[in-house]
Amino acid sequence: MKSEAQTSKIPLVAILRGVAPGRVVEVGNVLYDAGFRTIEVPLNSPEPFASIAALAACGRADWTIGAGTVLSVDDVRRTQEAGGRLVVAPNCDPDVIRCALQLGLQVLPGFATATEAFAAIGAGAKQLKLFPASTYGAQHLQSLRAVLPRAVGVFPVGGIGANNIAEWLAAGAAGFGFGSELFRPEYALAEIAQRAAALVQAARGIGP
């Protein structure tokens, strides 16, 4: 995946689960200002393809917009049609991975075990999403890194906050995805901005 913030070379993905199309651009602008350069709209959000299209229409060349909770090839195609360039899944589905790559999209399939990781790599994935990360812990990632190809980046997602980013980086994380730690529909813009700033600062290694 691309380098995210101008302030950090560690890729950070904002997961806007539950965001509504009428609010997505203002939330996206706050995240952009904080340094996030990748935004994921999970497909179990209200009218997710409308939100993806609204963000894509902003036309920022250094912004990667995409869909999360992508479970089918049809979802992949609809993501591309909406202007998305990234497909994120909670699971390892080789058909989803191959379809995304064939359409020229970035893909981040979910995995928990070495078996799932190598199935995703075999289908062409170059980055993997360890999910849910908090269930397995940083030591799980550290052990997996001993056998995974060095070129394959692992993004822990789920339960990662400013207070434990350093631990995961030490275990071999290449980047992170942030969900409720960063956004919930009830959060005000000021709170989203504060949470985003804390996460970016922690990723830079200068504390929460």
Textual characterization of the structure:
The protein is of the alpha/beta class and 208 residues long. Helix content is 40%, strand content 16%. The chain has 9 helices and 9 strands. It has helices at residues 21-34, 48-56, 73-81, 94-102, 114-122, 133-136, 138-145, 165-171, 189-203, and strands at 12-15, 38-42, 64-68, 86-88, 106-108, 110-111, 127-130, 153-156, 176-178. It has a 6-stranded parallel sheet. α1 (21-34) packs across α2 (48-56), α1 (21-34) packs parallel to α9 and α7 packs parallel to α8. The protein is globular, with a radius of gyration of 16 Å. The two termini are 24 Å apart.
Query: What series of H and E elements makes up the topology?
Result: EHEHEHEHEEHEHHEHEH
Q: Portion of residues in helices?
A: 40-55%
* End-to-end gap: 24 Å
Number of strands: 9
Question: Low-confidence runs (pLDDT<50, min 5 residues)?
Answer: 2-8
What summary fits the major beta sheet?
6 strands, parallel
The helix-and-strand class reads alpha/beta
Strand order of the largest sheet: 5-4-3-2-1-9
Inertia-based shape:
globular
Secondary structure tally, helices: 9
Keywords:
six-stranded parallel sheet, 208 residues, globular, alpha/beta, three-stranded parallel sheet
Architecture blueprint of SSEs:
Layout: E1 12-15, H1 21-34, E2 38-42, H2 48-56, E3 64-68, H3 73-81, E4 86-88, H4 94-102, E5 106-108, E6 110-111, H5 114-122, E7 127-130, H6 133-136, H7 138-145, E8 153-156, H8 165-171, E9 176-178, H9 189-203
Parallel strand pairs: 1-2, 1-9, 2-3, 3-4, 4-5, 6-7, 7-8
